[in-house]
Write a structure and sequence with these properties.
The protein has a five-stranded mixed β-barrel, surrounded by four helices. The chain has a two-stranded antiparallel sheet with strand order 7-8. The chain starts with 5 loop residues before the first strand and ends with a helix. The chain is α/β, with parallel strands linked by helices. The protein has eleven helices and twelve strands. Its EC number is 3.6.1.55.
Length: 385
Amino acid sequence: MNERPVVILTALDLEYEAVRRHLSDLRLHRHRAGTRFEIGRLPNGCHVALGLVGKGNQPAAVLTERAITEFDPFALLFVGVAGALWPDVDLGDVVIATHVYAYHGGTSEDDGLKARPRVWEISHEPDQIARHLVRNGTWKRRLPADQAAAEVRFGPIAAGEVVQDSAISAHAQWVRQTYNDALAIEMEAAGVAQAAHLNRSLPMVVIRGISDRADGTKVKTDGVGWQAKAVTNAAALALALAEELARETLRGNVADRTEKAEGESMPEIVRNVAKGSAHVGVQAGRIYGNVSIGQPSQAVLDPAGQLADLRHKLSKACAAGDVDVATFTAAEEEIDVAAQSLSENTDQGKNKAMIALRRLRGLLMDVADLASKVASVIAAIRGTL
C-alpha cells in the first residue's frame, strides 16, 4: 500500500515475536552500524520495519532515531508490556498513551523532589484512528481464538529508568502522587517519543499491554504467563492500527495526486491526420490511467495481482468521493480476507477468497466499475481451481 513503511519497535524479545507473528515475507535488513531489522508485510500490503531497542529510554531513543533515518516511515509504533499504576487497570488490558511522561526530570530541594517532566502528546489523527478501531472492535480479529479480548484504555504512561515493583516504596508513592493520572509505568516510551518529536513530529503511538501491577507481584504474574497474554493483545491492536494508518496515508497521497492531475488535465481534442500512404499509430497528449492498444494478450493477471489493482482502484474511488469512508473500510476488510485466503495457496483458501469477494461485490454494487472489477477477480480465481 505504501512504499514507506511503518516502523514498529519493541524492547523485549517476547514483544518482538508477538509482532513478528503477524508479518509475512520477512527479510533481514542490516544497518551499517550493526543493528538488525526485519521488514515484512501485513495482509493489506503495508510494509513494516520491525526492530528491537532493548531496555531503557536512552538506547530506545538512539535506535528509534536510527530506524527513522534508515526507513523514513510514515508512522512509528512502540509496542510492549507495562505495569499498571491503579487497581482498576486489569492484567491483560491495553493502554494507548495519550501522553508520555519522562518522569525522572526534576529538581531536588530541601523540602523534597520537585517534578520537571518532559511530556509528549499523541498526534490527533492517530488518536482518532485508534479510538475508532477500539469502538468497532475489528482489531480483535487478530487475537488467537483462545485469547479473551481485553479492555483498551486511553491515558498517560509514565516512562522512567527503573523497574517499579512496589506499591509502598518512596519511589512508588512519589510517582503515584506526582503523576496521578498515569495508567501505566515502563522504561522506554520517553526515548521513543523524543526521537519521533525531533523528526518533524512523526506520528508516534505507544501501545502497552498490562502484564503486572508494579506492586511487588511481578515475579508471580510473569511466572503465570501474563507477559505473553498482555503483549498478544497489544500486538493485535498495534497491527490493526498500522494497517489503518497506512490506509489513511494512501488516501492522502491519492487525493494529492488527483488534485495535481486535475490541474494538468488532458486536452479535450487530439487530432490524428494521415496523408498519402501514411498510417496513424497513436497520437495523444498527457495520458492518465491504464491504456490498451489493439487486442489484449491472452496473459491475464494472476488473482493476487488483480486484487492489488482492485485495492488501488478502491482507494482512488474513496479519494474521489465515489465511495464513502464506511463502505471503503468494510470493503478493505473483505479484500484483506481475500488476500490472506489466497496466500494459503489451497483450493480451500481460494474458495474463502471468493466468498469474501462476493460480499465485496455486494458492498460495491452502486459503483459499476468496481463491481465489474470484483467479478473479474472472482473469475480469475475460479479459473485456477
